[in-house]
Amino acid sequence: MGLYGALVVALVASLSSIVFAERRLFIRDLPEPKARCRNTVQGQNMVTDDRGVICKRSELSYSTGCCTSGNQHDCALCDLRDRCCSEYEACVSCCLAPQHNAVNIAKQALRSPRHKDSGFWGDPFEYCKGICRTHSRSTAHENAYISSRHHCFSQLGRPMLSDPLPAGVLNGVDVVAGQRNANCDDVCGAKQKKCSAEHLRWLSSCDRLRENFGCEAGCEVVAGLGPSYVDGNAPKPARPAMCFAQPADGGKLSCSAREEQHLMLCPCK
């Protein structure tokens, strides 16, 4: 190669190292992309993001949509017996808690329960946002709510006002919605069964009535009336579409009792 060739090779190598060194000076690690969240958007005071974090609106990052602080999967404003909450954002946060299995439920739950063509929810956050919204099952009459806890993520979709029934208390009992003006003796007899007077008290609550009737006009606890539903076509003075339950201390209920325009709720054995 000779002396001249060796000098040229050395010079090229030197220049290459300088160029690469200069290039290295301009190489910088790219910043990590910021996490982005979807959130419940409309809350005036509170917001919940898709991680299940609930926070004050002042603690929401508008550049990412994420809560910068707050509590994750917060169920403090919810009653887990019926899975109903007093605030919409709290309902979404609690619904997203792993123990409530929204990940799997979202794949099986229709957007509109009565319409198969509505499709399934896209993901747990969309499911919880949808199911926690107020709907007709959580209202007693027009704009009156059954309870302040009217945001529910349960299959029932409405708050319960009484304690759950004791385990097994209705074993062997058929709960039957009767015909208008018929008493429970007649209702059960038509099914070749007998009315069980001792079980009437377990049916005499607004929760049990709502499970079997619409109770569109509401439900009242009144001594001497119930458990029954007023026929929706009854005259206005009879209070159509109203449910009536008897208070616990309202006296013994009878299978032979009936009310004009009412449909009785009957335990048949």
UniProtKB/TrEMBL annotation:
Keyword check for Cell membrane = no
Keywords of this entry: Glycoprotein, Golgi apparatus, Membrane, Signal, Transmembrane, Transmembrane helix
Source superkingdom: Eukaryota
Protein topology in the membrane: Single-pass membrane protein
Does the record bear Signal in its keywords?
yes
The family database entries (Pfam families) matched by this protein are listed as: SPRING1
Gene Ontology cellular component list: Golgi membrane
Q: Where in the cell is it found?
A: Golgi apparatus membrane
A GO BP term here is: positive regulation of SREBP signaling pathway
Coiled-coil ranges from the UniProt annotation: none
**Stretch forming the signal peptide:** 1-21
- InterPro entries xref list: SPRING1 (IPR019352)
Family per similarity comment: Belongs to the SPRING family.
Its protein name is SREBP regulating gene protein
Task: Please name the source species.
Answer: Chlamydomonas schloesseri
